[in-house]
Specification:
mainly alpha, 5 helices
């Protein structure tokens, strides 16, 4: 079974409580985390690897936000990237970061839409 990209009923409930202010804040938060992942991807590609705990912190925050939104596929991608085995292999790490960035961008686009449906 393919994990849920975004639980639209959860998102609708959140937006019913927080409205456009919450929607806008979620989009900003997701974009900031996506940008941090892209920066880490560049560091990894240049051979610097995970020299600090920045990647772990970003993934932890992104995984929590994804879980709140019911974005199970993004949660699973974050968990896979948090694996030390993945992070120790530069090619694998870059591939996983790319998957997480792509999924984050997709979720961000869905949330930016008023109804939370697929773009």
């Amino acid at each position: 079974m393919v994990p849920t990209r975004l639980d639209t009923s959860t998102v609708a409930s959140l937006f019913a409580l927080g409205g456009d202010d919450l929607r806008n804040q979620l989009v900003v938060d997701l974009q900031q985390l996506e940008t941090a992942l892209r920066a880490h991807s560049l560091k990894t590609a240049e051979g610097y690897g995970n020299t600090d705990d920045t990647l772990g912190q970003v993934l932890h925050n992104l995984r929590g936000l994804a879980a709140t939104l019911g974005a199970q596929r993004l949660v699973q991608l974050c968990v896979a990237l948090e694996s030390p085995a993945v992070q120790s292999d530069r090619a694998s790490c870059l591939l996983h970061i790319s998957d997480v960035v792509d999924e984050t961008a997709h979720i961000c686009a869905q949330i930016a839409q008023r109804d939370g449906s697929n773009p």
